[in-house]
Amino acid sequence: MTRRRGDDLGGSIVPGRRAATELLRAGRRPVRSVSLARGAAAADEVAELANARGIRIRWRDADQLREESGVDVAQGVVVQAAPLPPVPLAELLDDAGAFLVALDGVTDPRNVGAVLRTALAAGATGAILPRRRAALLTPAATKAAAGAVEHLPIALVSGVAAALEQAARVGVWTVGLDAAGEALVSELTIADRPLVLVLGAEDAGLARLVRARCDVVARIPMTGPVESLNVAAAAAVACFEVARQRRG
């Protein structure tokens, strides 16, 4: 498996039918090979896309594909490609309509992928991931993202707190999501402005310094005995609520 350098996001191993199909359709990065399981439901569609781009196809049995993919269920498809290049944070912040999603210490790659997929679907213009103490684009993350990483610009930063400080300097507001937030995410007054929505770690939530750098800390109203949501579920609620408010 390709070793990830400190200056890239990963994403060179892309398992799963939808993720692989979007990678091939987007054509944003070089593809080294496409591995397909014999008889897989997705094989014909992916093979057609690979052949159209002149990409070598390798036919594998189930055990070979599982080993190559790095996930338990690859849906019969694994693509090996160049790593995804990060986008400079300043470029994302320079967008007058910026709606960015930042992940602060999210360590489950499936959650990272699910949040990126949700962010793109909700109209986010980019995402922010920290280099350390967090999951990046592992095979599990690219599979869960289902092709979103091919279309959503992602900045790789040394730390989320410093990224929020940089955002503040150029007039971009920040909203942290936390169960103890003082505001309701459904009643934000700054949702229509350039904005970074910050989501915290699965167990610990927002780091202390990150929380302090947020202009607003908001919560999702909860009823019943369950006190919190998984970070991917919380991201879905918050992203689409921000999107609704931005539409006016």
Secondary structure: helix percent: 25-40%
Q: Mind telling me the CATH superfamily name of the largest domain?
A: SPOUT methyltransferase, trefoil knot domain
| Rg, Cα atoms, Å | 19 Å
Instruction: Give average pLDDT, whole number.
Output: 92
Number of domains: 2
H/E element string? EHEHEHEHEHEHEHEEEHEH
Shape: elongated
CATH architecture of the largest domain: 3-Layer(aba) Sandwich
| CATH third-tier fold name of the largest domain | Alpha/beta knot
Low-confidence stretches: none
Structure overview:
Strand 5 (99-104), helix 5 and strand 6 (126-130) form a beta-alpha-beta unit. The N and C termini lie far apart (46 Å). The model has no long low-confidence stretch (mean pLDDT 92). The chain has 248 residues and is α/β, with parallel strands linked by helices. The protein has nine helices and eleven strands. It folds into two domains: 13-81, 2-Layer Sandwich (60s Ribosomal Protein L30, Chain: A); 89-247, Alpha/beta knot, CATH 3.40.1280.10. Helix 5 runs parallel beside helix 9. The longest helix is centred in the last third of the chain and has 17 residues, at 231-247. 49% of the residues are buried. The strands form two sheets. It has a seven-stranded parallel beta sheet with strand order 7-6-5-10-8-11-9, sandwiched between helices.
Quick description:
The chain has about 250 residues and is of the alpha/beta class.
Label this structure with key terms.
248 residues, four-stranded mixed sheet, single chain, elongated, alpha/beta, Alpha/beta knot, 9 helices, 60s Ribosomal Protein L30, Chain: A
